[in-house]
Amino acid sequence: MKSTVRKKRKLLITAGPTREPIDPVRFISNYSTGTLGYALAALARRRGYQVTLISGPTELPCPRGVSRISVETADQMQQAVAKAFPKADALVMSAAVADFRPVRVANQKIKRSGAAGSLRLWQLELVENPDIVAEAASRRKPGQAVIGFALETQQLLSNARRKLKAKGLDAIIATRYFPKLKGRGPFGGEPVDGAVLARNGRVKEFRSLTKQNLAARILDTVGQVLAERSCASC
By the 8 A CB rule, do 113 and 137 touch? Predict the structure, then answer.
């Protein structure tokens, strides 16, 4: 059943990957296409939300009626979320933020050794990126909701529960990734398997959902959490 929006709620959604530069022409990223986040933004707009979409690099067009903020790195996404979230009723953190970034970024393209047949060992030192959703959850005001995501290749529910608690989220959308099954799973493929876990212990597993159907379930969860937090802050 679809949740109803009694007033013009403000929804902040992040989508797509981040790119963490190594040098002017190389970067660290992942296979995220932003499809789910953009589907969420479009459907939320149709349901009556005022939507701001913070997007990493993607080829997808911005949904009609949605305000998009384009970013590239995790630091840029962190700054954009920190600025926009205080004005929002809920944050849905569907972006696939790179967990790590290079400690140093070269000013010029890094060259090979040039020696024919040589295999030079080249090491890349990394540092963890900020945990954007955990920071938002720690700073939220009464009545605000924070929804996170967990992409797992194993132990889906136990890992998702751990993240839900550690990050202080209201709910988490856990999706299962099948490395050996091309075209199936969160990174641009369909269908998607996983579960929605709420802070109150509610767990709703799902199988073989399209991104559109998953977006609908996520927005239903957002509506439920906002209603619960609204009552709790009364």
Answer: no
- As annotated, the active-site residues are 30
Secondary structure element (H or E) that encloses residue 22, with its range: strand 20-23
Tell me the three state secondary structure of residue 82: helix
Q: And the tokens for 160? A: 């998702």
Q: Which residue has the tokens 């609204």?
A: 230
Sheet strands (E) in 67-144? 67-70, 90-93, 100-102, 126-128
Angle at 88 between CA 84 and CA 89, to 5 degrees: 160
pTM over 0.70: yes
d(CA 142, CA 145): 9
Q: What is the distance between the alpha carbons of residues 149 and 37, in angstroms, rounded to a whole number?
A: 11
Residues 6 or more apart whose Cβ sits within 8 Å of residue 162: none
Beta bridge partners of 91: 12, 146
Q: Cα separation of 196 and 171, whole Å?
A: 7
Q: Return the CATH number of 10-100+127-232, one of 3.90.226.10, 3.40.50.10300, 3.40.50.1580, 2.60.120.10.
A: 3.40.50.10300
Strand runs labelled E in 108-180: 126-128, 145-152, 171-176
Distance separating alpha carbons of residues 64 and 75, to the nearest angstrom: 27
The owner of tokens 């963890």 is 128
For 175-219, write each residue's pLDDT tens digit.
988 765 554 455 666 789 999 999 999 999 999 999 999 999 999
Phi, psi of 223 (to 5 degrees): -60, -40
